[in-house]
Design brief:
alpha+beta, 5 helices, 17% strand, elongated
């Protein structure tokens, strides 16, 4: 069109369009924004929670929370624990068991929870993400919705990379 009809409005528009396309395909091309890095988590030993990220397809959350509360009464009778469920994203709910005085107590709970296939049948055996988290890291984790990033941190810093 440019060579067939030089000087026309169409030729000028085509030239401008081609120049713009050449510009965009070069070094100044508009790039998709990179995913921002997740938060930086810190290793702390203060107050901790244990979180289970349960699929919404698991059924009614009150049933899941009740089973966890019953587990808590059986194995942690002397420890005042709260079980709360919150929407994490479109497909997961964060069931938070709080609170433990330190990392060691949270990891004791984590180990018993993870290994329990009878009291928590249909919950602990589903392969849902389960982890301990400090109170300070919890706010960062929840705001960023950074499950995979935090699981990497948890595996390295709580499970020794296992």
């Amino acid at each position: 069109m440019i060579t067939n009809f030089p000087g026309t409005d169409e030729a000028k528009a085509a030239s401008a369009f081609i120049a713009n396309m050449d510009h965009l395909s070069g070094a100044d091309a508009v790039k998709a924004p990179a995913k921002p890095p997740g938060p930086t988590y810190a290793t702390e030993d203060g107050e901790h929670f244990v979180i289970l990220l349960a699929a919404d397809s698991a059924g009614r959350m009150p049933r899941v929370r009740a089973a966890i509360s019953n587990f808590d009464l059986s194995y942690f009778r002397g420890t005042p624990l709260q079980v709360m469920a919150n929407i994490y994203n479109d497909s997961l709910q964060a069931i938070t068991i709080r609170s433990f005085p330190n990392k060691q107590k949270a990891m004791e709970y984590y180990g018993l929870f993870k290994g329990n296939k009878t009291d928590l049948k249909g919950i602990a055996d589903r392969g849902w993400p389960l982890f301990a988290i400090s109170a300070a890291n919890y706010a960062k984790f929840y705001m960023a919705k950074d499950a995979s990033g935090y699981m990497d941190f948890f595996t390295k810093n709580y499970l020794g990379g296992k």
